[in-house]
Amino acid sequence: MSKSSAVKAASSHSGDAFVIDVEKIRADARQHMDEGPVTSTYGADRETVLKLLNDSLATEIVCTLRYKRHYFMAKGIHSEAVAQEFLEHAHEEQEHADTLAERIVQLGGAPNFAPDGLASRSHSEYSEGKDLIDMIRENLIAERIAIDTYREIIRYLGDKDVTTRRIFEEILAVEEEHADDMADLLEGRNG
User: Strands (DSSP E) along 13-153, which ranges?
Assistant: First the structure.
């Protein structure tokens, strides 16, 4: 079924009227119930979206692990405040991973938490960093990578999968905040 068979815009002299074939939508809702929220009007290629979600899940897991390591390894005169920032970001990255995993399941996929291949699926890299400044730099680089890849995913999704797009938009906003935090920390240490 195409969207236009259940929802039609009809022209009239007073403008466009919005017409919904409720009976058709009700009948279609009863078919393929095992597909949950994925109805015939889902416009994206589900396999592609599931791959994008799983690759992003790997990215968020790698970011969580990197931030956690940096939290525990932060040393130096200003390390306590920076370590707390790393820990806060680790928690937020884990929340992103959980949100992505939930969406994968909603779309009928399986979240890939397998440790082997995690680094190769991730957009960003896992870098331990030599010292506090290096850790901040590595986190800023990783955030910038996530920002660019998530923007591309958002563009790809467009109106084809609005729910997944919104999830990525929400995550992107937090990643931009993380990058800003890391840039501020770096400026404070170099300035």
Answer: 15-20
- Alpha-carbon Rg for the chain, nearest whole angstrom, is 21
Per-residue pLDDT, 9: 43
User: Same domain, yes or no, for 27 and 67?
Assistant: no
Q: How far apart are CA 97 and CA 117, in angstroms?
A: 16
Residue 41 lies in a domain: no
pLDDT digits (tens, 9 = 90+) for 119-162: 999 999 888 989 999 999 999 999 999 999 999 999 999 999 99
In the block, residue with structure tokens 């905040």? 177
92 and 135 in a single domain? The answer is yes
Instruction: Give me the pLDDT at residue 14, please.
Output: 54
Average of per-residue pLDDT values in the chain: 88
Question: Could you count the other beta carbons within 10 Å of the beta carbon of residue 173?
Answer: 11
Between CA 33 and CA 102 the distance in angstroms is 19
Would 186 be classed as within a structural domain? yes
The number of distinct structural domains making up the chain is: 2
Residue 7 is part of which domain span? 3-35
Clarify whether residues 27 and 85 are in a common domain.
no
Average pLDDT, integer, range 74-94: 94
Q: What is the spatial distance between Cα 60 and Cα 100, in angstroms, rounded to a whole number?
A: 9
